[in-house]
């Protein structure tokens, strides 16, 4: 399909050059599949202004070049200057297998993909889960189109919270609880610490705001607990063996828990370079910013300022070194940027987080541009997911609740599976429940435009109707069952023959698969692939309603078996790119 679109595009461009001269004519015009025709070109409208010609005149000049292509059955001008192309059935039939190959648009290029990145000893909130699922899908999609992808889990394993945790550990630890549920207990002592610190602050008459951090200077009025936490943090940063050992333990128990979740979700990373990895590069990073005149001193601290003229937009300053010499989240992000560019020379860096960090990354990318970073930098942000009451049964939003969410998904998916097929044996049912349950949680995240707010509901996520994992997975299982039945008759797949209308529509849909994947790779919006798979499953349904497979005469049956096979393959591969599995029977 790609090759054809490119051929039509360059032939059309050549036709325009011949008619009106080369000026303003791009080397290729865009032809794309469209719901109105097999292929459509809207370039005439887009170029009209630059070429100072009525769009219909341009379209008329293009038309003969399209008509003369051997794949084209018919090409017509419509409306303001659209060119609608109908392809020859014979071309379509012989190009079916184009649906199985991607154009290697990323070949020779590296992408650093920073996703999941939860914070150690803190709740892995729902945002980290969405980042994990979106990031994993992007990893697979980018690899499919030829990119070398470095999947990097930028763990939040450094920062002021560790001083607090160490104090909490010394004062409030319940050993037995820690043995049972280490991360749960770390969370509890952290929360306890925060409450106590807050109470001390109030007793001192200091204002307490929501999300109050210790970054604000409180010299005279600092609560005793906070002073203690700062002292522990200083010791940790200075390499005090006891505190370093504690810190390491916090990281290890948290990582063990994260890994359990990753394993269950089928997620894997190439690197886990957390914030701590950059710790010894922070001083040099700030020095470099100062030397290059990117950062400046301000009231004892070091900041970067942003102006509309230089950075494209005015933004609040970014603090990169505090007055007390401490570094920040943003400083380690600048260090990570330098490191990634130096080590992998990526052409793109993608960072997946929720919407609340948009300003942070706009600032970071502005700093990177001033440092001369040549890569395309993308903050792949997503809206926060709303959870109706009761979706999570235990501690809100943390790792444990994710596991209970997945348990619940599997339980509910088992009911769905039973309703579809009461004859499944227990072991098979459990596998269907696992695959469908996990799939529906993931698909629910992936199928909505990531920048819209979504609400999670079980009924929608697990519905067998609509754009859901169970719908697409069921379409796959149904095709596999058809294939098994027909194979029992000894039939084998064969070349496509004359195409019925729904059959033709199905092949055209299949041919769009590599385009859908490429679109996701370029736009970092996986929902386009969900939309595509949903459409493909629907096109299969229409085909199957109209076109018998098992009872067709042998050559037609063989052709339809081939079609079944390609649809099943594309559904399976497409779901796999989203990190979702299939089952052979449902
Ligand atoms: N740990 C951060 C958080 O939980 C996300 C890190 C994202 N990646 C980055 N390079 N800053 O909010």
Describe this structure in words.
The chain is α/β, with parallel strands linked by helices and 586 residues long. Strand 5, helix 5 and strand 6 (148-152) form a beta-alpha-beta unit. The protein contains 22 helices and 13 strands. Helix 19 (501-511) runs antiparallel to helix 21 (527-546). The protein has 4 domains: 2-87, Gyrase A, domain 2 (2-Layer Sandwich); 110-157 and 278-398, HUPs (Rossmann fold, 3-Layer(aba) Sandwich), CATH 3.40.50; 159-238, no CATH class; 402-577, Isoleucyl-tRNA Synthetase, Domain 1 (Orthogonal Bundle), CATH 1.10.730. Arginine binds next to helix 13 and strand 10.
Question: What does this entry show, briefly?
Answer:
The protein is an alpha/beta fold and 586 residues long. The chain has helices spanning 2-20, 43-51, 55-67, 89-94, 126-144, 161-172, 175-180, 182-203, 224-237, 241-265, 282-291, 308-311, 329-344, 358-370, 399-420, 426-446, 458-461, 469-488, 501-511, 513-523, 527-546, 554-577, and strands at residues 31-34, 37-41, 72-78, 82-87, 110-114, 148-152, 296-298, 301-306, 315-321, 348-354, 376-382, 385-386, 454-455.
Write the layout of secondary structure elements.
Layout: H1 2-20, E1 31-34, E2 37-41, H2 43-51, H3 55-67, E3 72-78, E4 82-87, H4 89-94, E5 110-114, H5 126-144, E6 148-152, H6 161-172, H7 175-180, H8 182-203, H9 224-237, H10 241-265, H11 282-291, E7 296-298, E8 301-306, H12 308-311, E9 315-321, H13 329-344, E10 348-354, H14 358-370, E11 376-382, E12 385-386, H15 399-420, H16 426-446, E13 454-455, H17 458-461, H18 469-488, H19 501-511, H20 513-523, H21 527-546, H22 554-577
């Amino acid at each position: 399909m790609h090759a054809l679109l490119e051929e039509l595009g360059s032939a059309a461009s050549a036709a325009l050059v011949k008619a009106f001269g080369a000026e303003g004519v791009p080397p290729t015009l865009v032809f794309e599949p469209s719901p109105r025709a097999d292929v459509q070109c809207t370039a005439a409208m887009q170029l009209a202004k630059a070429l100072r010609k009525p769009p219909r005149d341009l379209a008329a000049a293009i038309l003969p070049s399209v008509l003369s292509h051997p794949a084209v059955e018919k090409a017509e001008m419509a409306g303001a200057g659209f060119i609608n192309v109908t392809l020859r059935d014979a071309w379509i039939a012989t190009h079916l297998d184009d649906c199985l190959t991607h154009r290697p648009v990323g070949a020779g290029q590296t992408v650093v993909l920073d996703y999941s990145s939860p914070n150690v000893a803190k709740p892995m909130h729902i945002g980290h889960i969405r980042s994990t699922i979106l990031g994993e899908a992007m990893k697979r999609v980018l690899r499919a189109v030829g990119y070398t992808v470095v999947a990097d889990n930028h763990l939040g394993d450094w920062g002021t919270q560790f001083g607090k945790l160490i104090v909490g550990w010394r004062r409030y630890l319940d050993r037995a609880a820690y043995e049972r549920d280490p991360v749960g207990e770390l969370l509890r002592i952290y929360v306890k610490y925060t409450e106590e610190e807050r109470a001390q602050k109030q007793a001192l008459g200091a204002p307490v705001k929501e999300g109050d951090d210790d970054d604000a200077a409180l010299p005279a009025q600092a609560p005793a607990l906070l002073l203690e936490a700062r002292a522990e943090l200083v010791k940790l940063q200075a390499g005090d063996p006891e505190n370093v050992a504690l810190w390491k333990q916090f990281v290890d128990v948290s990582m063990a828990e994260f890994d359990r979740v990753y394993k269950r979700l089928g997620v894997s990373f190439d690197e886990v370079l957390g914030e701590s990895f950059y710790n010894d590069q922070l001083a040099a990073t700030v020095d470099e910013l100062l030397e290059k005149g990117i950062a400046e001193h301000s009231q004892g601290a070091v900041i970067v300022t942003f102006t509309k003229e230089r950075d494209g937009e005015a933004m609040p300053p970014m603090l990169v070194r505090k007055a007390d010499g401490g570094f920040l989240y943003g400083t380690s992000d600048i260090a990570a940027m330098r490191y990634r560019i130096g080590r992998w020379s990526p052409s793109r860096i993608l960072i997946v987080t929720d919407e609340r960090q948009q300003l942070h990354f706009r600032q970071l990318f502005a700093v990177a541009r001033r440092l001369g970073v040549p890569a395309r930098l993308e903050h792949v942000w997503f809206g926060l997911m709303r959870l109706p009451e009761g979706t999570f049964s235990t501690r809100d939003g943390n790792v444990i609740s994710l596991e209970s969410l997945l348990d619940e998904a599997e339980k509910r998916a088992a009911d769905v599976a039973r309703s579809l097929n009461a004859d499944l044996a227990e072991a098979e049912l459990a596998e269907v429940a696992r695959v469908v349950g996990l799939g529906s949680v993931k698909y629910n995240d992936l199928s909505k435009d990531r920048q819209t707010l979504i609400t999670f509901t079980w009924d929608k996520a697990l519905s067998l109707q609509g754009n859901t994992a169970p719908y697409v997975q069921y379409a796959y299982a149904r095709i596999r069952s058809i294939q098994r039945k027909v194979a029992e008759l000894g039939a084998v797949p064969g070349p496509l023959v004359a195409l019925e209308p729904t059959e033709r529509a199905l092949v055209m849909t299949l041919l769009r698969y590599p385009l859908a994947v490429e679109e996701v790779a370029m736009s970092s919006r996986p929902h386009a692939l969900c939309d595509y798979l949903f459409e493909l499953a629907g096109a299969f349904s229409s085909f199957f309603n109209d076109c018998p497979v098992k009872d067709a005469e042998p050559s037609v049956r063989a052709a339809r078996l081939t079609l079944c096979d390609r649809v099943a393959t594309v559904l399976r591969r497409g779901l796999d790119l989203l990190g979702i599995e299939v089952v052979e029977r449902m």
